[in-house]
Amino acid sequence: MKSWKTTLGGILVAAGQLLAPSLPPNYTWVSATLTGLGGLILGVSARDNKVSTAEARSK
Question: Does 58 have pLDDT greater than 70?
């Protein structure tokens, strides 16, 4: 686990998708919120190592 931020984002996305079928219809917003927040966290923190693509390939 290199980045706790990307891991947290992935867990939230997965939890939102797993909860969707088991929630009552008036609580589906919980699933959508978890999935959206997880995706946002995941997308924002995916390149948190502050290196360019060329530098990342050379490692």
Answer: no
